[in-house]
């Protein structure tokens, strides 16, 4: 990927906002300056590098996340952004610990797995049980408690786009637990993975026992499914040390360029500074943080002062709690009515394809 692709979107944010003006012509020259600066700028890339290579993953409750918060606030001040603050946010703390999954019968094979965020762990000796494999919730319900009780349910749901498929990761554990399952293994929610499991959050329902849940690779889920459909007895073993600890202190990071005409009106843009604990959280969402932050920084470095206040916010704890977003709403108080636009980037930093837009009151 070319570096400049990452940040091509930044000036467009400003252009989109300005499209509401009756005439765009007065902005053309300024917009061109911003675009030109963004296309040759490498400051956003440097920020992304720092997040990924110097800090690493930023799971809520980790020291790394708080280092990222401290570093970002310090950099914003050094760059001359105004009103830099780090309002405190209490965040949940989930720890993965050691984990593994094996197929024990009909042959022994290690499965490529990742515990799902928020999952409970297994007993120290693990859970060893016969697997039942389903492709959807209807198949699970049809099996019923008689055939699910005491088993490990393997969800081998085909990929039907993220929104439709993610239900198996978020709800699969509780749906299976209601029928007496001891654990679930969920096919990774992705169209292709080259035997790489994908993590993400699960949501336990209040009316079901909490059972351990892990993602396995697409290939492993398909293999277990093939074996089960041949009528073979498939036994799996799951060991997870996952646990939830006491909540910890974190913070949102906020910096601004105060508006020159309507400083009380706010355009906020940003990404989430936390990440999952595997990988470096580059796409999800250091890139969103870096792009939004650098867009504001470019406006600043060009000596421009927009009519309204331009605010960058790096929200904490999006992945497993959304506490940063909620805390921002509280922190903003009545000023939320004077937010004229809120722009979030959390879709990965690939070539820009467009923006999603929600307009309050629009039908
Ligand atoms: Zn994200």
Could you characterize the architecture of this molecule?
The protein has 363 residues and is α/β, with parallel strands linked by helices. It folds into two domains: 3-93 and 246-344, Aminopeptidase, CATH 3.40.630; 97-241, Glucose Oxidase, domain 1, CATH 3.50.30.30. The chain has helices at 3-6, 9-18, 28-40, 43-55, 63-79, 137-148, 162-177, 218-229, 282-301, 323-332, and strands spanning 82-85, 88-95, 99-105, 109-111, 113-115, 127-134, 152-155, 183-187, 213-216, 235-240, 243-251, 253-257, 262-272, 308-315, 339-344. Helix 4 (43-55) packs antiparallel against helix 9. It starts with a helix and ends in a 19-residue tail after the last strand. The model is unreliable at 1-10 (pLDDT under 50).
Instruction: Work out the strand percent.
Output: 25-35%
Helix content: 25-40%
In the residues, how many domains can be counted? 2
Order of helices and strands: HHHHHEEEEEEHEHEEHEEEEHEHE
> What is the C-level CATH assignment of the largest domain?
Alpha Beta
The appropriate CATH architecture of the largest domain is 3-Layer(aba) Sandwich
Average pLDDT over all residues? 93
- Whole-Å distance between the termini? 38 Å
Number of strands: 15
Class from helix and strand fractions:
alpha/beta
Radius of gyration: 23 Å
Number of helices: 10
Low-pLDDT ranges: 1-10
What binds here, in terms of ligands, is: zinc ion
